[in-house]
Prior knowledge:
Rossmann fold, five-stranded parallel β-sheet, 7 helices, about 50% helix, nucleus, rRNA processing, P-loop_NTPase, AMP kinase activity
Amino acid sequence: MKMKKRPNILLTGTPGVGKTTLGKELAQQTGLTYVNIGDLAQEGQLYDGYDHEYQCPVLDEDKVVDELEDRMTEGGVIVDYHGCDLFPERWFHIVFVLRTDNTRLYSRLESRGYSGKKLQDNVQCEIFQTIYEEAVDAYREDIVHQLPSNTPEDLERNLDQILQWTQQWMKDHN
């Protein structure tokens, strides 16, 4: 029996915009596999050093791509990461860039213990739409979508929208 084809979805955006909350809920409701790149890197020690300025490990992008290749080829994966241009274009059927109001983002990041340059740089990244521009440069513009992610109502709307998209994609491709 042939397995159903299932889409690959990228959830991206500045840290603190709600990718993980949305991704986990989406996986629960669709049965797709949720992969948080930060967790994957930690579990597999997929690092290439340490950034003392931002006080975090440096991702080894090649190792991450190698680690995910087979799963992405099979399909049915939701990838959650704050960067997007490291992944091959062929992997994703749709890309969602979550966006958050700067004052909310500042509070969210502060509550996570971000401070100084790390806090300022992430808020500036959001102000200048850095991740959105990265996504449009890395993928076909027609598959890149921005979603507001400020309130629980936004989360519900985004979830509904992505669920509808996923159901339609499965109908069209099976």
